[in-house]
Amino acid sequence: MNALDASGAARSRVHDRERRTLEGFGYSCEELDLRDHFAEREELPQRLAGLDLVWVVGGNAFVLARAMTRARFRDALAAQFPRREFTYGGCSAGACVAGPDLRGTDLIDDPAVLPDGYSPTAAPECLGLVPYRIVPHWRSGQPESGSANNAAAHLTEHGLAHRCLRDGEAVNAHDITGPAVRPTPRLPDPGEISRRAPNRWSTRPAGSRRTVISGGAGERRG
Questions:
Q1: What one-character DSSP code corresponds to residue 118?
Q2: I want to staple 67 with a disulfide (CB 3.0 to 4.6 A). Which of 2, 40, 154, 165 is the partner?
Q3: CA-to-CA distance for 62 and 76, rounded, in angstroms?
Q4: Distance in angstroms (rounded) separating the CA atoms of residues 4 and 64
């Protein structure tokens, strides 16, 4: 939820909505607040080790990336990927931070937003899970869609690898070691698109069995 740390009451509303959605898929949910780990970073890998899924919601991608930097989330996350049952998933800002950097995202989100308790010296570092930038809300009729279209045009103009997603589409990244793609703004290949949930994205190492949220098989913790 840390992308919404500067969003006031909206944070609680989104939390309740996302919890209901995930519980509908059969997950047992708890909030992972990275602010709890700004000082106690050693505990974060242990928290992740007890989870099957980390679901990262939208908001301000720069706030989210700074929270991940302060908590050393990238290192804690990398330690979990050998577990075949573990999934990282996210929408909007949660997808943006999966790329190599937030270039172009400054045309969508304000990089100067700094919630209480955040250090201005914490760089908004990304996770580098895929070798291209995710542009969410592209041509989707959302308030952010115009900015997303501008971001896609900017990335194309500068020859920066990216993938554009309309709301209702997602990328499932099974192979995160492939070469960067430098397309004009376009949708992912048909085999990479899931239409089950709005603008949702997840990534797993090659060979992983479970890459998307699914309902059914008992209670899972996420």
A1: -
A2: 2
A3: 19
A4: 8
Nearest to 197 by CA among 167, 221, 164, 220: 167
Provide mean pLDDT across the span 30-48. 92
Residue 128, C-beta contacts closer than 8 angstroms, at least 6 positions apart: 74, 98, 99, 100
Max Cα distance, the chain (Å): 47
For 181-196, what is each residue's pLDDT tens digit?
333 334 334 333 333 3
AA identity, residue 164: C
- Least Cα distance to 185 among 217, 150, 144, 222 occurs for 150
Tokens of 71: 């908590």
8-state DSSP, 180: P
Q: Provide the residue type at 63 as one letter.
A: V
Which token pair is 5? 């740390």
* Residue 212: closest CA among 90, 49, 65: 90
Nearest to 137 by CA among 125, 145, 128: 145
Burial (CB count <10 Å: 0-12, 13-18, 19+), residue 152: buried
